[in-house]
Every structure is written in structure tokens, then in C-alpha cells.
Design goal:
The chain is an alpha/beta fold. It is built from 14 helices and 10 strands. α1 crosses α12, α4 runs parallel beside α7 and α8 crosses α14. It is globular. Bound molecules: NADP nicotinamide-adenine-dinucleotide phosphate. This is 3-keto-steroid reductase. GO terms for molecular function: 3-beta-hydroxysteroid 3-dehydrogenase (NADP+) activity.
Amino acid sequence: MSEDIPQPEDGFYALVTGANSGLGLAIGCRLIDEFLQTRPQSQSLVLIITTRDKRKGDATIQYLRDHLQDTCRKLEKSVPGFRIVLERRVHFRQEILDLTSIVSVQRLSKRIKETIPKLDAVILNAGIGGWVGLYWCRAVWTILTDWKNAVTWPTFKKSGVGWLTRPQIPHADDGKKADEPPLGEVFCANFFGHYLLGHYLAPLLGKHRASEESRGRLIWVSSLEAYTHSLNLDDIQSIWSHEPYESSKRLTDIIALTSTLSSTAPVVDKYLDYLQDTEKTTKPRIYVTHPGICGTAIFPASIIVNYLMFAAFWIARWLGSQWHPVTAYKGATSMVWVALAKQSTLDSMETQKGVGKWGSATDRWGHERVERTEVEGWGWGGTVGEKRKRKGRHPHAKDLTGQGREQFEEMGKQCWVEMERLRDEWEKKLEDAGVAVKMD
Ligand SMILES: NC(=O)c1ccc[n+]([C@@H]2O[C@H](COP(=O)([O-])OP(=O)(O)OC[C@H]3O[C@@H](n4cnc5c(N)ncnc54)[C@H](OP(=O)(O)O)[C@@H]3O)[C@@H](O)[C@H]2O)c1
């Protein structure tokens, strides 16, 4: 194992993708803050951040270091002389990852596997919107007539259609294109690249003894905009969809929420490379979170539109929307909570209320909290008959029925099988072309 890579005695190893901006950067900051305040002094955080190039990685590490110093300065006020001790509890490491390149995902995974002893949390945050503009008339009309809902579940974003990743297999020396199936860009950046990463890193997430009372966690970052109608199994990569972003997020919800069902267990176990708990290993858990709505660079906008967007979000919060944390730091609440919460807390909440989607919410004053979020066809926890107050629900949300629940589970099975088929297909293709990265 390389010398330069920190491996503290009692380390908590967390990896965050897309860490150089928006929510990814905020997740890094919030993880530092909450880790230092909630974990014992004997524990250290090893924060592994991924970006698309070294320049962004360097800038991100510098930003996080500055943030760490600010946090330690503030915490020192209660215990003078404590700053140095606190600062020594956080270690940084940067890696390069482009989720639209399967080889890049494999390269990173191999490096991580060779250089750290285990992983505690992998936060699958990076993503693209794939939007190219706004339907302005619809935007103005819906915002003026139904402000809160219009900026929570917008219907006015215009998506690019037919976007594909660059070829995964380089052209031959004679310039001939390799024969490879299409790979949807939004699908790959938001979902499939992360899906592969989760598979390759699962053995490291599994390195937790049963006696530790904590499992490795694969934490997906989804969205409120994960609609049933957006996902079409005949175009699961949403290449021809007018809502590729929403489709990728719906797939995320389905895959994560059905990952603990007995009907998906054989395929999920294959994905997680899992046979049974042993003295030294346990099965990792897959969770799904979302940040609510925050002002970030995910929507390409001019400065003026950006200001208007922030103003619209603040107003929505003032009108009573719980889903407008607005700032990325508040939006990071649910991801960081799921990463750091005690396993017994998560398990007992799931035992009482079922497996759910954890969202970042705030009150009117911006006090943040974690809130379970309704998912079409799953409800709040996959339980038929669960009644909740209307707040935070989509205006057209329907109560979960037995039939809806069955359809969701069936969809989950089909999606898992299809994703494993696609993984096998691409791994074989890359191997045959001689470009795959060998893992072991
Ligand atoms: N903002 C919101 O209100 C909101 C709401 C719901 C869900 N989310 C989700 O939150 C996550 C983060 O979004 P954000 O709002 O923070 O957007 P953002 O500021 O645009 O950040 C996206 C991050 O993903 C990285 N990324 C994009 N394509 C990538 C690729 N092919 N490979 C590796 N990294 C890639 C970006 O890197 P570059 O800087 O190199 O492009 C950037 O670091 C996304 O999954 C998004 O769907 C956001």
C-alpha cells in the first residue's frame, strides 16, 4: 500500500463523488463538521473526494482544508487548545473519476481497493441535469399560479435528447470505430457509472465485523423529480426520453428501495459480491437520499437567471415548502446523516416504518432536518395504508395500494436484472477489446 495514503488506526473512510461543486462540496464540509462533533476523539475521518481532473481536485482539497480550519477554530472556543487535535482527525485524499467512462470507474476502483483497508460510506453524488434550457412561458405561468409546487416539481425544464457518452473503446489504429452499443450520457453519469462503482467497491464496504454494529453504506443521491412516468423499460438508458434526468433518478429510487427485498436478493447479492456474513465481513447496505431543492450549478443559467432561481426558492420556502433547503450545505443534511447515523438508529427506523428515501428538509427559518419522502408506488416505507399529512407530498400523489406496491417490486426485479445484464455485457466488451482494468 502506498505511503502517502492516510490510514489512521480508527479511521472512518468516506468517498464522495462529484465533490468539487454544489452538493458534493457541501457534503464534504458537512461530513467534517458532523464527524468532529459526533464521533469519539479516537476516530479519524479519511475523506476521499473524486473530481474530473487534478486541478479541480486540488482546489477542492484546499477549500475543504480551509473549511476544516474554520470549523476547528469555532470548536476550539469551547475547549481552548483543542484545535490541533481536531485538525489531525481529518485526512484528505483526491482521486480522478469520470462516470461516463467505464474504464475510469474501473481504474479508480482498483486504486481504492489496493490502497485502503475498508470503506464505511460511499456517497454517489455526482450528476448532470442534461437540460438545455427552459420553456419560459410555462415557467412564468406555473410559477405565478402555483409557486410552491412549480419550483418543487418543475415542468418547464427542457432536456437534451439522444445524448450518448464518448466511445468506451478507443478507435483502432486504422481509425476504425469499435463496435459497441450506445450508452446514454445522463444515464451513465447519474446512474450506471455509480452502479458500477458500487459493485467494484462492495468488497471494501463489506469489510465490517458483525461485532462492529455498523455496515458499509452505499448512499445514492436521488431527487424529488423521480417520476414513475419518466422511466420507460424499453429505453431504460433514457436516450430518447425527454426526461433523462428524471428517468435516471427514478431508476435510482427503484434500485435502492428494492435492494433489501427477498425477491431481489439473488441478483443484489451477486451485485454486492456477497455470499454470507462471516467473522470479518457483513453485507453492505444501499440507501437512497435526496437534497430537496438547492441552488447549484446543475442547471446551466446566466447570472440573472441564477439570482431569480435563488429568489424563487427562498419564496417557496417562505410559502411553506419544506423541500427548499436552498443552500447546498443544508441540502447535504440527509446524505451526511445517513453516512454517520448509528446502524441501530437506521435499522430501528426501518423496522418501524420500512425502507425509505431520506430527504433534506427545512422549516421556514431554514432549520434543517431529515424527512422521509414519499415515492410513487412505494409510499414512505413500502407499507400499504400508511397515512401522512399532506405536507411535502406531490400535489397529485396517490395513497399506496397493494397493486401499486406489487408493480413497484416487479419493476425493481426487472431493473436489477437488466442492470446486471448491462454490467456483464460491458465488462465483457471491454475485456474483449483489451481495455478493461483487471480488478484482482
Ligand atoms: N441541486 C439540486 O437542487 C438537486 C436536487 C436534487 C438532486 N440533486 C442531485 O445532487 C447531485 C449533485 O448535484 P449538484 O446540484 O451539486 O450539481 P453540480 O453543482 O453541477 O455538481 C455536480 C457534480 O458532479 C460532477 N460530475 C458531472 N458529471 C460527471 C461525470 N461524468 N463524472 C464525474 N463527475 C461528474 C461535476 O463535476 P464537474 O464540475 O467536473 O462538472 C460536479 O462536481 C446530483 O446527483 C443531482 O442530481 C441536486
